[in-house]
Amino acid sequence: METDRISWKREAWRVVPLVVLSFVGWISPTISRGLTGAAILNSAALVVAVAAAVLWRRRHPVVVTVVVAVAMVFLPGLGMVTYWLYLSLAIRSRPPAIVATGVLVALTTAVMTLISPETGDFSFAGEEIGVVIGAFVMGFLFAAAVGAFGAYLGSSRREKAAVAERLAAAERAQELAQENARVEERSRIAREMHDVLAHKITLISLHAGALEYRDDLAPDEVRAAGATIRQSSHDALVELRGILGQLRQTDDATGAPSKPQPGLAALDELVAEHRRAGRSVDVERRLAADPPETVGRHAYRVAVEGLTNAARHAPGTAVRLELDGDEDAGLTLRLTNRLSLSAPDSPGAGLGLVGLTERVEFVGGRLTAGERDGEFVVEAWLPWQ
Predict the structure, then answer these.
(1) Class of the CATH-defined domain 264-385
(2) 109-157 tens-digit pLDDT
(3) Does residue 266 surpass a pLDDT of 80?
(4) How do the domains of the chain map onto residue ranges?
(5) 371, exposed or middle or buried, with CB in 10 Å at 0-12, 13-18, 19+?
(6) How would you label 166-175 residue by residue, b for 16+ Cβ within 10 Å and e otherwise?
(7) What is the pTM of this model?
(8) 253, 245 in Cβ contact below 8 A?
């Protein structure tokens, strides 16, 4: 409501001066012809009608301009109002409307100039055709000048508005890209944290559980379990510091961690680590050649998650890890373990496989995980590229 009140006040301040000027333009020829009651009433009615029309110029610019231009023939004082309305129309309208309305304004201007202010009749005789031509030429020139100026102002305003809109759209797109980058970075951090720490913490949990529930362990076995816990804790801390360091200092070109990630060359050490923890892990390799480094890194991550998943959900069961593939068939990695009837609850269960699936699909591969004939199977296929 307050905005509407301000808008009406602004319009009133624009209309009042125009009405006053129209009245001044009307009073002189009216007095010269004689102030009759009908003349005063008709002219005053026209002024009021024009004032009302001006208030509607934004909603119906063509109609309002045409009405006032026709009224100008009978009330010459409306010339200034007519051209002000035409200028406003030219600013806001397109060329067809500007040209069509401009022709009418020029015609009414020419007719107005040919009417005698004293008698109200046409002020030329048949032999004064030059006066008629001059009036029409001047009317068209003046209307063309006003229309061209208004079209220029309108084009300039629209161009500025378009530039502002493009800048706003670019700013919104940049903000969206930054938000997407933050989301992707958070997802990447979550995957890295899980990949690096999950299997280390799982090993610590297994050895701590053995120390808690087994009373028959020899002193050497207790020391070995304690040493494994200490070493796994140390390794987890070192790798955590490494991740945090990578987050602070990333590769300039891609934003990826600059530290090389382990590949299949580190698979033997990973298996040995699980075997030292008391797990039974059998590995079978049927690779025609070493896969590319990128493929090897993703395959290693699948192996880490699969072994960690088996240790967490099926402790004490044997795990079979198979690697198969070549350049044409791609690389297939499969981890299989028997299902455990008493698998302990684990916080975050399933999150690792979700992140792993995203990682594999990102490089054009596929991953499946689920029960098959009493076994839990994690199988990943990666393109050899």
Answers:
(1) alpha beta
(2) 777 777 655 445 555 544 466 666 777 788 788 888 888 888 888 888 8
(3) yes
(4) 2-123, 264-385
(5) exposed
(6) eeeeeeeeee
(7) 0.43
(8) no
